[in-house]
Amino acid sequence: MTEPVLSDDLVARHLADHPDFFERRPELLAGLTFASAHGGRAISLHERQLEVLRDKLRHTERRLGELVHIGKENDAIVDRLQRWARELLLVESAERLPGAVVDGMRTAFTVPLVALRLWRVREGFEAPEWVRAVPSELIEQVDAMRLPYCGPKGDLRFPGWLPNGGADAQSIALLPLRRGANPLSFGLLVLGSGDPDRFQAAMGTAFLERIAELSSAAMGRLAASA
Q: 135 and 110 share a domain?
């Protein structure tokens, strides 16, 4: 009669189902040896457990270091966001707000390529630098955006608004501007970078959403009331 072949899974399941196994068979536990993960020599179970714990500790320390680094980066971002928002609040003339928003992207957040287009603005606001003819189909695309877009510029037409026609941009972010809860946009903030990883499709948009909200709130005075 052929004896059943014990697989690793069967052995592991048996030990899990019988946690007192080595208490009943202490002679097996005492004789267990393992190859060291750091040299290949035979070591006891106790030594192997210490190695495992040390490896876990090193992994935990590395992860903690990463979290501390991320926390410091986030604190720096929040600080820059707060200072930029303060600068917007200090702008007395509404006509100067578009320039303040664009300058803030370049200086506070080191975005090298920035463009801004406004439409559906109030009567009397004339700023050719920001208010230019935009095809209706592009405005409709922006109206349909519920969140900022991040990723490669691809065949989108918006990167063409960037300096040098967007030739230097490898990744972009598109931030629609809306007045309050109005579903219709009144502009678009375009951010570009020569780094293809600066604005990735997989990255979170929470920070960009805050920038879009603050920009919209600041420049909302320029939007048409209806």
A: yes
